[in-house]
Design brief:
Layout lengths: L1 E4 L1 H10 L3 H10 L1 E3 L6 E13 L2 E15 L2 E12 L10
Parallel strand pairs: 1-5
Antiparallel strand pairs: 2-3, 3-4, 4-5
Length: 93
């Protein structure tokens, strides 16, 4: 199935610390989380081991929300949270 990401969505995702490759990976290999307003969600925790805005974080958790129209997955937004999660399938932030 095709995955479509609007340029504005991709720009905002970049500001949050992610990119097109990671967004597609979350859609393909992440776990399901609840979405709102008829949207679906998937999430995934990545090892980060780096600094973000002057603070060190062990992991980052991505949450991607999308809709499906025909046979196309349309990415609505991607959020990135930094911290440490005990489980890979940690509950929604």
């Amino acid at each position: 199935m095709e995955i479509r990401i609007d340029p504005h969505t991709l720009e905002r995702a970049g500001e949050r610390g992610t990119n097109e490759e990671e967004i597609k990976d979350v859609i393909k290999t992440g776990f399901t989380i609840p979405g709102k307003y008829g949207r679906m969600g998937r999430a995934k925790v990545y090892d980060f081991n780096g600094e973000r805005r002057g603070k060190f974080y062990e992991q980052k958790r991505m949450e991607v929300f999308y809709t499906i129209e025909s046979d196309v997955i349309i990415i609505v937004t991607a959020y990135v949270f930094y911290g440490k999660w005990e489980e890979e399938n940690a509950n929604s932030v």
